[in-house]
Design brief:
The protein is of the alpha/beta class and about 280 residues long.
Length: about 280
């Protein structure tokens, strides 16, 4: 039974303190801004990116890593004696899964499994961390794959945005839904559902949006004994602290075993925009 490494992509954007002792390796997605290519979370960091969005009319484009980039990472790990599990952003949002699959097929002698998380941000990050801890503790590739699939089913994300403009421009939400938040300045509640961003409902004020996010988390956590929470930020730290207070006022704090505040990676932020606030969750397995 070989040791296992976990490969993911940059949209997971996990806090470094959660991965520094784990066998986690990241392949970055790409941003193109004014014909210049950047690596997500490497040569373009969230704070600089959101400032750019706020202060300019630049509309970035994004792209998945190439199969060759995944192949290079897989080959290095296999040469180090690892089996590899690759857990990536939803195939409904990016071609990253297809690139990873092509790389796997190009290395037929290697032990590599690729998992479509149907998630992103810390909705993806939590399963990666859970699987990496199991790998560190000696789980096999097959055990890690089964755990990844289960952890992804038990994870998700809900969020609100200051505007639907970026989701509409990027084609990440259907055209009819692009008008969901415009009338009377209504605030949309969105979720990752079936691997895509879908509109759930709308509320009249930002405060009510935070209340609704807390209520939804309470509903979804019913029957689960542990909860991991990841607040997803795009220059929204103060708002996230308010949301955290609201959630703790509704959810049994003894259930909450981990809380992190995480910037949304620039590649995802290109489609959601500054002012986005969400909460990713992962329930007990």
């Amino acid at each position: 039974m070989g040791k296992v490494a976990v490969v993911t992509d940059s949209t997971a954007y996990m806090p470094i303190e959660l991965t520094k002792d784990l066998p986690v390796y990241t392949v970055p997605l790409h941003l193109v801004i004014d014909n210049e290519m950047f690596q997500d979370g490497v040569t373009m960091q969230p704070d600089a990116f959101y400032t750019l969005q706020q202060e300019s009319n630049v509309v970035p484009t994004t792209s998945q890593p190439s199969p060759e980039e995944f192949k290079d990472q897989f080959s290095k790990l296999c040469a180090m004696g690892y089996d590899v599990i690759c857990i990536v952003i939803s195939s409904g949002m990016s071609g990253t899964f297809n690139s990873a699959e092509q790389a796997r097929l190009a290395l037929p002698e290697a032990n590599i499994n690729v998992v479509d998380s149907k998630l992103t941000s810390m909705g993806l990050g939590f399963p990666v961390i859970i699987v990496a801890q199991a790998a560190k503790d000696g789980a096999s590739l097959q055990e890690c794959t089964a755990l990844a699939e289960q952890a992804c089913r038990q994870s998700g994300a809900i969020f609100t945005v200051s505007t639907l403009k970026y989701l509409h421009l990027g084609g990440r939400i259907n055209s009819a839904s692009a008008f969901l938040g415009t009338a009377l300045n209504l605030k949309p509640i969105l979720e990752l559902r079936g691997g895509k961003i879908e509109a759930m409902e709308r509320v009249r004020t930002y405060s009510k949006a935070l209340d609704r996010l807390a209520d939804i988390l309470l509903e979804r956590s019913a029957g689960h004994s542990t909860i991991r929470l990841g607040y997803l930020l795009a220059k929204t730290m103060e708002e996230a602290k308010i949301l955290d207070e609201k959630i703790h006022s509704k959810v049994d704090s003894n259930k909450i075993i981990q809380t992190v505040f995480v910037d949304i990676s620039p590649v995802i932020g290109a489609h959601t925009g500054p002012g986005t606030l969400g909460v990713a969750y992962s329930f007990d397995l």
